[in-house]
Structures are given as C-alpha cells and as structure tokens.
Amino acid sequence: MKILLTAVCLILSLLPARAQGVHDFIEGGFKYYIENDTAVAISDAGDDAPIPVTADSTLTIPSTVVHEGRTYRVTYIATKAFSVRREIRHLVIGEGVEIIGPYAFARCPNLTSMEIPSTLSCAPCYEEGFFYGCSNLCRITVDRRNEEFDSRDDCNAIICTETDMLLLGCRSTVIPPTVTTIGPKAFDNCTNLVRLVLPEGVRRIEYQAFRDCINLKEIVLPSTLDSIGGSVFENCMNLESVTIPRGVTKISPRVFSGCYNLKEVRVDKANPTFDSRKHCNAIIDTAQDTIVAGCGNSFIPEGIKGIGAFAFANSSLREIKIPRSVRHIGDRAFAECHYCNAVSVHPGNPVYDSRGDSNAIIESATGRLVQGCSLTSVPDGVREIGDYAFFGVRLPPHLVIPEGVETIGYWAFSNYCAIQYVVLPSSLKWIKARAFGYIDALRYVDMSRCSPRVEVFAFSGCKALNVVDLSPHPGIIDNLAFANCPCKESVKRNLEQRLKRQETLLDEH
Prior knowledge:
Blueprint: H1 2-12, H2 15-19, E1 24-27, E2 30-34, E3 39-44, E4 58-61, E5 64-67, E6 70-77, E7 90-93, E8 99-100, E9 113-116, E10 139-142, E11 149-150, E12 158-160, E13 165-168, E14 181-182, E15 195-197, E16 204-205, E17 218-220, E18 227-228, E19 241-244, E20 250-251, E21 264-267, E22 274-275, E23 282-285, E24 290-294, E25 306-307, E26 319-322, E27 328-329, E28 342-345, E29 352-353, E30 360-363, E31 368-372, E32 384-385, E33 398-400, E34 407-408, E35 421-423, E36 430-431, E37 444-447, E38 453-454, E39 467-470, H3 488-508
Parallel strand pairs: 3-6, 4-7, 6-8, 7-9, 9-10, 13-14, 14-16, 15-17, 16-18, 18-20, 19-21, 24-25, 25-27, 26-28, 31-32, 32-34, 33-35, 34-36, 35-37, 36-38, 37-39
Antiparallel strand pairs: 1-2, 2-3, 5-6, 11-12, 12-13, 22-23, 23-24, 29-30, 30-31
C-alpha cells in the first residue's frame, strides 16, 4: 500500500505541468485545467485573485464544473493550488476529488478544519507537504465511506486504513491505540503542538515525523516502540527531555538535530540494544560502544569506541572531549555545533589528537583535521581540512590557511561563517566542491600563491565575493566554481586572458 501510494503521488505530481497548457478556463473564482474529456484539475485563479470563500471563511472544492455546455468532474487539486491563502479557515473537499497535489494547501496559516471526501484515494499528506505549515489546523474529518483513509475515534488525524499508519496529525490529535506507525512528516511543522502521548501499540516513527515542531516540549514514547526514523525530532528546539523505551532496536541519524534545549536523554535500563551509561545524556549502541545520538548536555564516557554519523549534529554542545577509547568518528558527527568553543582529545588516544592545544580533532596518521570550532588554530602537520570540518562554525572574519595544507574538503567552511577574507597557502593542491559555499560575508580570496584544482561550486553562493586574486598559474578551476558569485565573470575573463598569453608564448617559441 505504502509503495503504491508513493508511486501514484510521484506520477501525479507531474500533472500540473501538463495541465497548464492551452486547455484551461476560469469559472466561479476557480481555475480549471482540462485533463481529459470528463475530468479537470482545480486551483485558485491566481495569487491576486480572490477565492470564493463563504462568510465564515469556508472554501468548498466543488465536485463538478460546467464549461461551454460540458460537465466535468473535479478529480484533482493541483500542486500549490491554494497555498499561502490566509482567507481559508475551513476546507470542504467535494465528493469526486481523488487526489490532492503536493503543497496544495501549504502554509495556509488560518486553516483550522478540513473535511476529506470518500473518493480521495491518494494520500493527502504522504511525503509531499500537502498541509505543511498549517499550524492552526485542529479539526480533521475523513468521510466514513472512504475505503483508503479514516479518522477513527474522532482522532483529528488521517490514518491509512489498511496499514494503520497515521499520515497527518495536528495540534489536537489524539492518537488511537490501533495506530502502529507514525508516518513520514505526519506532524511536520506542527508549530502549535506542545505535548503528545503516543499510545501503546505504536511500533514505528518514520522520518521527520515531528520535524520543526518548535513548541513541542514533551513527548511520551510507548514501550511497544521499536524503530525511530531519521530527523524525527529535528528542530524541535523546545524539547527538553526524551526517554527511549526498552523495545527500541533501531534509531536513524539526526534524530535530535536542532534540539537546542534538549537537556536530558535517557534509555530505559531494560533496553538490550541501547543504553545511556554513566548518565551521559546520550544514546549508545551497547554492542558497538558507539554513540548514536546526543544533546547539548551530553558527555562522551571513557569506553566509547565510536561516535556515529550526525550524533551531535546541530546541537547546543559547547565542549567536545574525545576520550582515550574512541577509534572512529562518523560523518558530520559534530557538524553545525554553533556554540562549541572548546575541543580536546585525550593525549593517550592512538587515533586522534588535538596537538598544540589547537582546539581541533586531528586524525594523527593522516594529518586530516576532522573537526574544528570557533577557536581552532590549525597547527603544523595538518595536510587536509576534512569534509565539513568547520561546517556551520562561527569563525572570525580573517581566515589564513597555514602552509602544509594540501586539501580543503567538501563543505569544509560552508554555511553561517562570518569569514570575509581567505588567504590560501602555496602548498594547496585541491579545493573540493562547496568548500567555501554560501558564506554570505566572504568578499576576498587570495589564491595568488597556489595553483589548486578547484571543483564545481567550491565558492558557490558567496554573494559578496567580488575579488579573487589568482596566481600566474591558477590551476584547474571548474567553470562553475564561482557560480552565483559577483566575481564569476571577472575570474572567467582572467583565466581566458592568461590562457591566451600562454598560447601566444607557445607559438612564439
């Protein structure tokens, strides 16, 4: 059922592009797109055109429309058809409508109630953000004759009848005990949700189910839960405490990313798969001795062998202390730790070090700087700034990469940085994709001493970057290395001029 719905939604998401051809008309304040001899898709008549709501702000999607003597069935609500419409408080979808297109009612801030017809057959929320950002939604009703979906027990939610998966919830949802799965993005951006109890019987929470629930302070998880998907609580910035029940056997990455106020993470002592030993405020894979997820109040206890991918990503962690026992640090384990200003590695650790009080994690054998912070000083012996090493880190305006560094990794300095000037060393050989991408303050790059290979989008989106000082032999620079930068054309002309000079010199000799 789940796979079928996904396929249907993906195929039908292409319909508006086909429908917006020559066969369209406006009738009764709606715009219609003729799909075939008997059916049409519907949307508003344009951003500036009023939509036909009643005195109590109810929008009713009609079942049929008559145009030029022909009656058409309204079967499809087009992509973004009524998005960002403040006029809508109540939504009634007429019998005959089968599909709601992606983002059809997204960000309708005053929408409080909706009625789903018996004919709806493609999930009105599954993965596509159909009602994303409707933060005041509090009443959801599915016609009892609908064979695909229901809102059993007047729960104020949409549930897939066959799979017992809750597909869409709201701030007043009371989850029935027959629900087994909280679907992907089911409560995504439900900003007025403050507290939620998941009943016994729920076994899985799918990815991003509670993402951007910025006012969610408390969630109670049932003992029957066995799987927690990726980014489930991402950006739940007011969530304060989470207890992982004894039955959970799977936790995907980024589960607490952006949970800046999360102070307490506990695992039920009866859980055989995970633990939170020594009151570390983190989730540890017991068999692997690896931290899966943590929070700003976590510490890494001695005996831990690994730190999993994204374990502390986008957390309020202020200090990173790597104990002697750690042998592996996963991809982006500490990425976007904006508040971190101290990093150290136990001097007895055989894999990593923080030589010279550098405030960095360095892979000793390779000289790769794995993770830095706002107070990092890149020490001698570092040959590579690793992928995401300073991603989202608030660095000072002047960045001088020291001699000896040969490679700057993917996204190494991207996002949120306050860097204005970058000076690159003569030793530099390689700048990977998006290494300096999207740094709004970046204005000047000095590459006058090096001839590196510069990959695609290496400086993409640096909207203030006006000056790039190139060396006489600038290396291999991808045509899109400076995409969406003011300096793009000047760099291109500079390279072309130098290439012509080289060709002239070759011809002369």
